[in-house]
Structures are given as C-alpha cells and as structure tokens.
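Researcher: We plan to redesign the surface later, but first we want a full-length starting point. Tokens attached.
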C-alpha cells in the first residue's frame, strides 16, 4: 500500500514505472505472439485427428511457459541476462550469444513500443483503475495486431478475453476522456452486439455479391470487443478510420509489390490501431471534427 501511495504522489515515478512494466510485458508479448499460432495449429491437428478417428500425434508440451525460450537455430537456452528487454538485444549486437544468428529487430521493437505506450497510458489516464484497464487493453491489442499481421488470424484466446474484460470494465462506468460521458454497461453491451453484427452483415453482403470472403470472423470478434470497451457511439469513427487507413495501405502494397487485387491484407491491425486511438483520444477527435461544422457564436 505504501508503494501505491508513493506512485500516486509522484507522477514521474509512476509513469517511469509503467514504462518499465511495459518493457517487461512487451518481452512476454513476444512469447505470446510467437507461440499462440503454434498452439492453435497443434490444437487444430489434434482435433482433426480425433474427427478422423485416429489418435493425435504425440507432441512435446508446448504453451506460453514450456518449453524454455531458446534460439530457433541452435536451440541454446536464452538466459535471464540475455532476456532483459531491449538492453540484451543491443548488448548482443542483435545476434544469438551462442551461434551468432541474427535476431529480428522486431523483438526489441515490440518491447519498446509496449513500454512507450504504457507510459503514455499512465500519463493520459493518471493513477487509478482507468489506467490499469487501459494498459490491459493496450497489451492485448499489441498481441492481436502482431499475430494478425503474421498469420491473418485473430485467436479466440485473445479476442474473447478482450471482449469480456471490456464488458466487465463497463460496470465501473469508466470515463475515457475529460468531459466525455461515462461508459455504461448498456452502451458496452450494445457496442459489442452492434460491432459484431455490423461486420457480420458486411461479410455476408460482400460474399453474396462477389462470391468471396472479404474478412474473417476474428475481425467481427475484435470489433465487438472494441464496442464493449468504447460503447456503440465510437463504432462509426473506428470503422471509418480503420477502413480508410487500411485501404490506403492496401493500395500502397499493391503498387509497390505489384500484387494482384485478390491479395489478402489483414484488417485486424487497422481495427486495433483505430480502437486504441479512440480510447485515448477519440472523444477529443470527434469533438474537434464536429466543431468544424458548428455555427459560429454571434
């Protein structure tokens, strides 16, 4: 309790502590991002074997804890000193300590981004429950963004907890911005329902018209989770921003990489970015936009 009192009394220390915590969480998120798709594949293989009437192939235990992190090439275990966020990667020159195989710069980048965004959340929301909830929201979105970017899958193991956590947070009636209305359970439930059904309808309309699938069910669930966190009022700004930026990104990819129009591009990362921006600044952005059309005072 004394530590909490100190953090509440000294904002700079509180923000710095959240940055440090974010770096540590970012290191764990790298594990989640790498291992969750493999865990999903293992589960799918076991289910397919069971449906075929056979015995699932025996595989070594693999989850977020076991086995211990190791170099993908030489299998040398990664020690605690080699796993210090960002610092270890820099000290090792971005290479494995044993075989000197290059280590992707994405690992320290995820850690750094998580740390910076965690510090921003602490500064934006101050000391309290709103900041704690926003941190969990941020961390889950980072993991979902990177997994979807890599695999074009949004795992239920992350989207469902994000959805249920948003519904539970609404019970505390959080205020995400000064002057904004508190998020009520009613707004959260309607937001989750409307978020899912809106993209579900778009999916089926696109499929009926073109005969193709324009997005995955994971996008429905992520949008539902964002509706639970933000309320139904923010769904339109989120989808407009995500669709606009996603379309521009897709055009750039098609032009630069000379790919066909049927190239699939993950939509989840754009939803996640739009949802995060809506949480930290959505109320201000909407107010400023609407202010452009407000009649001047006499």
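Model: Full-length starting sequence:
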């Amino acid at each position: 309790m004394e530590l909490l009192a100190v953090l509440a009394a000294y904002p700079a220390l509180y923000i710095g502590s959240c940055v440090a915590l974010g770096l540590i969480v970012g290191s764990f998120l790298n594990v989640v991002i790498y291992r969750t798709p493999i865990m999903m594949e293992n589960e799918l293989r076991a289910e397919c074997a069971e449906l075929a009437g056979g015995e699932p192939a025996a595989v070594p235990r693999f989850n977020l804890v076991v086995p211990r992190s190791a170099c993908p090439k030489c299998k040398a275990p990664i020690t605690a000193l080699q796993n210090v966020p960002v610092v270890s990667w820099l000290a090792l020159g971005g290479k494995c300590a044993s075989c000197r195989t290059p280590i992707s710069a994405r690992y320290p980048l995820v850690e750094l981004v998580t740390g910076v965004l965690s510090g921003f959340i602490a500064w934006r929301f101050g000391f309290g429950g709103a900041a704690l909830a926003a941190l969990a929201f941020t961390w889950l979105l980072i993991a979902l963004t990177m997994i979807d970017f890599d695999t074009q899958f949004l795992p239920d193991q992350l989207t469902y907890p994000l959805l249920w956590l948003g519904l539970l947070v609404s019970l505390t009636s959080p205020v995400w911005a000064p002057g904004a209305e508190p998020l009520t359970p009613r707004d959260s439930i309607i937001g989750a329902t409307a978020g899912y059904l809106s993209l579900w309808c778009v999916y089926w309309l696109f499929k009926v018209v073109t005969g193709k699938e324009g997005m995955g069910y994971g996008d429905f669930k992520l949008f539902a989770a964002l509706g639970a966190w933000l309320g139904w009022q923010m769904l339109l700004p989120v989808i407009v921003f995500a669709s606009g930026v996603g379309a521009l990104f897709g055009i750039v990819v098609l032009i630069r990489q000379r790919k066909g129009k049927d190239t699939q591009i993950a939509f989840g990362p754009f939803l996640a970015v739009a949802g995060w921006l809506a949480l930290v600044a959505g109320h201000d952005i909407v107010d400023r936009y609407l202010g452009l059309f407000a009649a001047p005072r006499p």
